[in-house]
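Journal club prep — side note

Before the paper discussion, L.F. wants everyone to see what a predicted structure for a comparable chain looks like in token form. Sequence:
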Amino acid sequence: MEPSNGDYIVVKAKDQGVHVIGLTRGQDTKFHHTEKLDRGEILIAQFTDHTSAIKIRGRATVLTKYGTLETDS
């Protein structure tokens, strides 16, 4: 298996129970992975051949190569 060179994002939870959900590529978009973060926890996620989108539920700071984003409550 060759390593994927997809973009990374960093998600830092500002509250308890922030959900980070990976969505698949292809004709039908489906959830394929979910992580639950507690306040202060950080997740580094990567876009891959299987992951085309990442959905975030809850208050979090998201760092990307395009800048820093804050989710709304």
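L.F.'s comment for the group: The chain has a mean pLDDT of 89. Keep this in mind when we get to the figures.
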